[in-house]
Design goal:
Elements: H1 2-21, H2 29-32, H3 35-47, H4 51-64, H5 69-82, H6 85-98, H7 102-117, H8 120-133, H9 140-150, H10 153-168, H11 173-201, H12 239-276, H13 284-316, E1 327-333, E2 336-342
Antiparallel strand pairs: 1-2
Length: 345
């Protein structure tokens, strides 16, 4: 009972919010408060395929006349056609609670059951598809919240993009501030999810496997009056070629990566500036396409730069074809005995 009461309260809150933001004009001041006039507007809009206008009009009628359950039914069906399944289910569930006719309740179940069985991801994807069909509804913020609730890295990244679009298309300062707050929450959650993923990828020591301890080797007996064999000079064939190749390749990748990364970064900034000027209000898909292309260019550039740095370091540490090392060599000279350090650096 407590859950049903909370859900009913949620539905009336949705109706109040919808009425406050409603953009369907009234033909006269009297008609503006007439639930039958709003219901008629909703029916006309629904029959014309204007499901967003129908949903808003039926919600207004339901707010003005809470005793008529039909307006809740029609508003829920209209939102279902729009693609806002979460809002549709709340309204239809409320209709089922106040509709006295059992035949009428049974007739709506074929529409309610698919909404009940839909997964959170399917609900988010449905509203995502509605954004392009009904841009005048400004549903980006509600879609962003659905993707945020999925709480996986890719979903939260998409939510962050939707919050930015909601900020650009905000109709009021309050909507803009809400979108900015949502974007901040998404950024914080995305950083936390990335940190968790990186931590999970770190190798962990297995306490069940002890470290390997090599067995001590017996000392080699000294052979008196025997000259040590002459040391052969190390074979360096091909070492300079390998080192030169690594250094040149690394330098080319660093230079090219820096150029691509800078171009991608500046391009992404330009797309954001154009979005802030309202160039993408009528084409939100174009914003994602342009922004994604510039971001991919930047990522490719920074990746190439990182690989180039790695090759350069490898080349710097490569002498005779193997990683650089330091060797201790005994030294005997006219000034006395000592140790010498040798390295292929």
């Amino acid at each position: 009972m407590r859950f049903a009461a909370v859900r009913t309260l949620t539905a009336w809150v949705l109706l109040a919010q919808s009425a406050a933001a409603l953009s369907v004009p009234a033909v006269a001041s009297a008609a503006a408060e007439d639930p039958k006039a709003w219901a008629k507007k909703g029916a006309e809009a629904f029959n014309k395929g204007d499901f967003l206008g129908a949903a808003q009009a039926f919600e207004k009628a339901a707010q003005l006349d809470p005793s008529d359950p039909k307006n809740l039914r029609y508003a829920g069906r209209a939102w279902q056609q729009v693609g806002h399944w979460k809002r549709a289910l709340v309204l239809l569930e409320m209709y089922l609670k106040i509709e006295p006719n059992p035949d009428h309740r049974a007739s709506i179940m074929e529409f309610v059951e698919p909404l009940r069985k839909a997964t959170p991801r399917q609900v988010a994807e449905a509203l995502d598809a509605a954004l392009a069909r009904f841009p005048q509804g400004r549903l980006e913020g509600e879609a962003a919240q659905l993707w945020d609730d999925l709480d996986d890295e890719a979903a939260v990244q998409h939510a962050s993009e939707l919050w930015e679009l909601a900020r650009v298309r905000a109709a009021s300062d309050a909507d803009r501030q809400a979108a900015e707050a949502g974007a901040r929450r998404s950024s914080q959650r995305l950083a936390a999810l990335k940190a968790q993923r990186l931590a999970a990828q770190q190798p962990k020591n297995d306490p069940a496997k002890p470290d390997h301890v090599p067995l001590p080797q017996p000392p080699t007996p000294a052979v008196p009056d025997k000259q040590p064999p002459a040391q052969q000079p190390p074979v360096t064939t091909g070492s300079s070629t390998l080192r030169t190749t690594l250094l040149i390749s690394g330098g080319v990748l660093v230079l090219g990566g820096a150029v691509l990364g800078t171009l991608g970064y500046l391009g992404a900034q330009d797309v954001n500036d154009r979005a802030n000027k309202g160039e993408y209000k009528s084409n939100p898909d174009g914003y994602f396409t342009d922004k994604g292309a510039k971001d991919n260019l930047a990522y490719a550039g920074w990746s190439a730069l990182a690989v180039g740095v790695g090759l350069g370091v490898w080349g710097a540490l490569t002498g005779d074809g193997t990683p650089a090392r330091v060797t201790v060599i005994p030294h005997l000279g006219p000034e006395g005995a000592g140790l010498a350090l040798a390295s292929p650096f």
